[in-house]
Amino acid sequence: MWKEIYGWGKYPRVKAQVYEPETIDELVNIVKNEPELLARGMGKSYGDAGLFDKVISLKYFDKIHQVSDGVIEVEAGCSLLKVLETIVPNKKFLKVTPGICGISIGGAIASDVHGKNHFNSGSFYNMVSEIKVIDPEGHLLILDKEKDAVIFGSFFGSMGLKGVVVSAKIQLTELKGLMLKEVKIPVESIDEFIDVFEEHLCCNFCVGWLNLAGKEAQLLVKAANWISESDRDRVFIFNKRRYALFPFEFPVRIPKWAFNLFNKRYYAKALQKQEHIVKMENYFYPLDTITNWNNVYGRKGLLQYHFNVGLHVAKEALDKAVKMVLSGDATCTMAVIKRFGKRNDHTPYSFPDEGYNLAFDFVNDRAAMDLIARLDDLVEEYRGSIYKTKDAVSRLGQPVRVEKFQSVQNKRYLNGK
């Protein structure tokens, strides 16, 4: 069938032929007979990842199989939400989880997603021991992390361009409780922010929040630790409540001051209660509380820019980036900073590398695109990198060299924009 597809940022939009195989034989046959195509997950990437004129939907590949007490095999079209609803009652969890649970397992591998704890737990790659994939010739391969280290690792962060992921074996971790204790620490500058962040690397999780919608930045370091349950007979349930507050795309643009007001209220509330206990679902997946929140940005959508720089230049580079955003005309609705640990040896296409990374959400307009071009220059100056999962307009993404599997994003990189 032909349909319009797009990512979570709603830009760009592509008219595509969408295949929906129901069996592995159908999937292999499509791969064999199409000269170029791309597997697509749930469309939650912010930029133009997962977009092409011919895509394979894996929505019928959504089953979970128990391998052992601590290992599950999950088909690529299965959502992270479904995984959590299955494993949490068994008092298991994922050592690494991104900030939304509405993504597919195949998408998590293609993006090699990370969470608020990369500095101590790595990326999605670190949890996966085996993957089943279909290569460009249509062969179904089983790749082991140890025996097939090079080709196995090349699938993580490759944006689906190395082949079609069919399933993955995931190592689970024990879940000792459903609550976390979070501490929110206000800081005055990027220099202080990084110093405070480094002091909290002993915590289970740590992330930074920034309000850049006004004239001056407001910054918080948010560190959290698990709270162990004393009652081991307690029933564990993953129950993420979701509210459909924005069922349609906003017809008018929300002004910059409105985003600033919302962020200021969040900051003030954080100062009033700097230590608090938070439910697991709300801590890890706050953006999933409101379904279709991207409708706030209207039909033009949003642009996200996510870059990483090394530890030795992080203070200077992040400070310049923040000042660039504050002094510009683009509307930055939200910004987040995280700390990456060391790069995995066998994931050449993966985004995380030791340093600090900063993600901006922008209202999609000419001012944002112009600012992103200047941010590209900054990232180049400090020898940083960008996250291809979030990118829609940057010129810095490095293509994955392939002959069969393609995407709008990869062709844009290969053509030099």
From TrEMBL:
InterPro entries: FAD-bd_PCMH, FAD-bd_PCMH-like_sf, FAD-bd_PCMH_sub2, FAD_lactone_oxidase-like, Oxid_FAD_bind_N. Residues 11-175 form the FAD-binding PCMH-type domain. It comes from the Bacteria. It holds the Pfam family FAD_binding_4. This is FAD-binding oxidoreductase. It comes from Polluticaenibacter yanchengensis.
